[in-house]
Design goal:
177 residues; mainly alpha; globular
């Protein structure tokens, strides 16, 4: 592996980490808050059986919509795309159109979110199908899923950055420091 390829993988890993930890923290926090809120609502209204199940389903839907909005919102700001230094190289991350026209913040956020997430979902679905076909051992599956999340996320970020599709993509500029 050349130094340039190592740098590409490190940049992809750092960009993935910037996105992943924020999504994970929001997911954990959201599950705790909305889990408590749904439990409170079910208890307050004395729901049982199917009514309690329906309330839990609605709270889950609200949580997933909030997670989607937050995931897109991360890309709207500079949280993920701020500059980084790797091996003495300053890497500037920008979002640009192929035709050079400016990118509206909402278009930037949606394009970045979609550009990463469809690749990540594709890798994860294929990986879990293959992993499930190979073994039924729960210890191996948990380890495999964790590796798949990490390596699949880094791989999908690399795939999106260095093999872009569409009109809006990330542009990396390297300056020596």
């Amino acid at each position: 592996m050349t130094e340039e390829q190592k740098l590409d993988i490190i940049v992809s890993a750092r960009l993935f980490w910037r996105y992943f930890w924020r999504m994970t923290l929001f997911t954990i926090f959201g599950m705790i808050v909305l889990g408590g809120a749904s439990h409170w609502w079910i208890t307050k209204n004395h729901y049982t059986g199917i009514h309690a199940h329906n309330v839990a389903a609605w709270f889950t839907l609200v949580f997933l919509i909030l997670l989607l909005i937050y995931g897109i919102g991360i890309w709207a700001g500079r949280l993920v795309t701020r500059p980084m230094t790797v091996h003495g190289e300053r890497i500037t991350v920008t979002v640009a159109r192929k035709n050079g026209y400016p990118v509206h913040p909402l278009a930037k956020a949606l394009a970045c979110w979609w550009g990463f997430n469809w690749r990540n979902s594709l890798i994860f679905v294929i990986g879990t199908a293959l992993l499930g076909a190979v073994t039924k051992n729960s210890d191996v599956l948990v380890t495999g899923y964790l590796l798949l999340v990490a390596l699949g996320g880094i791989g999908s970020m690399w795939w999106w950055i260095f093999h872009p599709l569409g009109n809006i993509h990330l542009v990396l500029q390297k300056d020596s420091t």
